[in-house]
From TrEMBL:
InterPro entries in UniProt: Metallo-B-lactamas, RibonucZ/Hydroxyglut_hydro, Sec-metab_biosynth-thioest
Keywords: Hydrolase
Protein name, per record: MBL fold metallo-hydrolase
Organism: Nocardioides humilatus
Domain Metallo-beta-lactamase: 37-254
Superkingdom to which the source organism belongs: Bacteria
Pfam families xrefs: Lactamase_B
GO molecular function, one term: hydrolase activity
Length: 353
């Protein structure tokens, strides 16, 4: 499943791969074990290039993007705009750095502004505790993980304001961008982050899906600042919005190009409904559970690893994602929540026969 049809090679292999006339996919490396690369999409227009996402602002990614653009007869100076899908650093930071240097506009969803505000405060040392995820981790019952994340922070890990500059264009609601002969719809799809957008070229049957619809993995839910109420509910409703569009070819941020947005959306909705059933079963097995306790009853990654097998970072991610599922059970009336000093405690609602 890792082979992408546009290249005939592993999807993360270096190159500027043509996915449609005038559109190239450029995988850029990521310095992490889980995700090998991010796909940046280059759309050629009459006034220059539009890039969907920008990559992570690290030297190796910048150098490879420059090399791949040159291979198709372009360069950084030809970039007119970046349409960023969401605020996460592997999508946003290289876009904002290059946009500032070369005068290209950067567009980002307006609901990401509170997160950018917090990152700027953290970079100035004004955020209490130094870790913007501390509060949500503690509410998930992951106080030990929050402490470790705080202690593990170094000065060089603090957000650099250059990497997190505010965008030139705030996206509000649904919008349309005309790029040469193409009309690309920016569709607000909150869930993975509050301001996530997908970009749909309906005439050519293409969905620049960001992290909303990934072909081989499920995007993280709950890994956002400030914490959002009911992020999983937002994500699933956003999936139904994409399902209401025509069936489009998926151009994902991570993974190979895939043939059907409808088929993958159906799989993602089924996955999360199954996960909700598992969470409710865990709650029903005991009188009161934190998100961490429920996470300990679940399998993680496609290899179904236990929570205790995860590294420190992924334990935090798992705790926050479990909390998102439990919060949706509360919204659906299937669970209750009580705030305690050890985190939010959830209980299954007994169904009378």
């Amino acid at each position: 499943m890792a082979i992408s049809p546009d290249s005939g090679e592993h999807w993360a292999n270096e190159g500027a791969w043509e996915v449609a006339p005038g559109i190239h996919r450029i995988p850029l490396p990521l310095p992490m074990d889980g995700l090998k690369a991010i796909n940046v999409y280059v759309v050629q227009g009459d006034d220059g290039l539009t890039l969907i996402d920008g990559g992570w602002a690290i030297p190796v990614a910048r150098e490879l993007l420059d090399k791949c653009l040159r291979s198709i007869g372009s360069g950084f100076g030809d970039i007119k705009r970046f349409l960023v899908t969401h605020i996460h650093r592997d999508h946003f930071t290289l876009a904002t750095v290059l946009g500032h240097e070369y005068g290209a506009d950067v567009a980002l969803g307006l609901p990401e502004k509170p997160g950018l505000d917090l990152l700027h405060a953290a970079g100035r040392g004004e955020l209490e505790g130094g870790n913007p995820f501390s509060a949500v981790l503690r509410s998930a019952g992951a106080g030990a993980v929050a402490d470790a994340w705080d202690l593990g922070r170094r000065v060089e890990d603090l957000p650099d304001p250059i990497d997190w500059a505010y965008p030139d264009i705030w996206l509000e609601g649904d919008m349309t961008f005309d790029i040469g002969s193409r009309s690309i719809d920016a569709v607000h799809t909150p869930g993975h982050t509050p301001g996530h957008y997908v970009y749909a070229d309906q005439a050519d049957g293409l969905l620049f899906a960001g992290d909303h619809v990934l072909p081989t993995i499920t995007p993280s839910i709950g890994f956002t600042i400030p914490p959002e109420p009911d992020p999983l509910g937002h994500f699933m409703r956003s999936l139904t919005r994409v399902r209401a569009l025509p069936d489009l070819r998926i151009l994902p941020a991570h993974g190979p190009v895939a043939p059907s947005s409808h088929a993958r959306v159906d799989e993602l909705l089924t996955h999360h409904e199954h996960r909700l059933v598992q969470c409710l079963a865990s709650l029903s097995s005991r009188d009161g559970s934190t998100s961490v306790a429920v996470a300990g009853d679940l399998g993680w990654t496609r290899h179904e690893r236990s929570y205790e097998e995860l590294d420190l970072f992924n334990k935090g991610m798992a705790a926050m994602e479990t909390k998102a599922h439990l919060d949706l059970l509360v919204v659906r009336g299937q669970a209750t929540e009580t705030a305690t000093d050890e985190g939010v405690v959830y209980r299954a609602v007994e169904v009378s026969s």
